[in-house]
Amino acid sequence: MNSYRPNDKRGRRRLLVATVVVAALFLADLLTGGAIRAALNTVGSAMWSATRSLSAGVTQSGIFSTKASLARQNAALQAQIAQLQNKAAAYTAVETENQQLRSLVHLAAVASGTTAPVISSFAASPYGTFLIGAGSSDGVQKGTLVATPDGFLIGRVADVSARSALVVGIFAPGQRIDALVDAIPVILSGRGGGTASGEAPRGATISVGDIVTAPSLGQRPIGVVGSVQGNAASASTKLMVRTPVNLESLQFVYVETAH
Amino acid sequence: MWKPRTSLRICLAAFGFISAVFLPWWVTVIAIILLALFWRAGEVMLIGLLMDLLWSPLHSMPWFTIGAIVAVWLLEPLRKEFLAG
């Protein structure tokens, strides 16, 4: 007996219902001004923060490197050493966090704003976006600029909820920005991952490491030249620009409030 | 007790949801393609929607949702070959 045809129709109907449900969910989110995504962002950022704390605790406790030595000692000394390692790991984490926050203090002299923790992965987003743990309750508004501790602009706030905000990277895929490299105008196209490409006129004297600024963002620095390709025979000089800091290592950013 | 194929689908779907939050986006794409290729998996569209709700600005085009829907329906003829075979 061939029950394939009724099963097939039932399966296709279920798939159609699933398609309609997904479309309805998306429309509901749109009509409620992002209420569903705000809730999901809260859950996602909590998961991300918990995972990062756990992995930091495991890697900094030295449990794997001292496991062999702990096994050789008696139970009382093992418990004592584990306790001391946990305390040292907590101190190191707080010290690292303190150093990062101190590096952000000088930015307050340049522009008013607030420090915000990065609460998501940079690599997970296909749109070059990331989440920060500051929202409308902290004075963050849509369109405000986001900078690294060194003062390099890395993004702009796209969506804001009460306690978090979604930032679109300056070098997100599809983003284009007018830039200057040593007074030479360049149009940069974002490639994601904190990198962008552009072309400069033939013969432009651009070197690796040159600071790239954005006239539309108050001549603020947005990156450094990572590589230069071109010779006298080519029609233009190809540039690769990158953010000077590894985005994945960023724990805190500075969010400038709108003027 | 679930069949092995069903267990595999559940694991792959769970992996897809988790990868949407933690892992590089191309890992999620691989999970979506595998699910859409071997099963008539409605959860693929939910994974795509999750990616857009998490990472896409509010009034932007939901490319991942659209891509997931296209993947599920586009691979339907191929899946029918697997089911009929």
How would you describe this structure to a colleague?
The complex is a heterodimer of chains A (about 260) and B (about 80). With about 260 residues, chain A is of the alpha+beta class. In chain A, about 35% of the residues lie in helices and about 30% in strands. Chain A has four helices and twelve strands. In chain A, the strands form two sheets. In chain A, strands 1-12-3-4-5-2 form a six-stranded antiparallel β-sheet, covered by helices on one side. In chain A, strands 6-7-8-11-10-9 form a six-stranded antiparallel β-barrel. In chain A, helix 2 (about 35-60) packs across helix 4 (about 75-105). Helix content of chain B is about 80%, strand content about 0%. Chain B starts with a helix and ends with a helix. The interface between A and B is large, with 36 and 37 residues.
In short:
Chain A has 259 residues and is an alpha+beta fold. Chain A is 36% helix and 28% strand. In chain A, the strands form two sheets. Chain A has a six-stranded antiparallel sheet, covered by helices on one side. In chain A, strands 6-7-8-11-10-9 form a six-stranded antiparallel beta barrel.
Shape of chain B: globular
Which chains have the largest interface? A-B, 36 and 37 residues
Q: Report how far the terminal alpha carbons of chain B are from each other.
A: 25 Å
The largest sheet of chain A, given as strand count, sense and whether it forms a barrel, is: 6 strands, antiparallel
Tell me what portion of residues of chain B adopts beta-strand conformation: under 5%
Percent helix of chain B: over 70%
Task: Please tag this protein with its features.
heterodimer; A: 259 residues; alpha+beta; 6-stranded antiparallel sheet; 6-stranded antiparallel β-barrel; B: 85 residues; mainly alpha; 5 helices; 79% helix
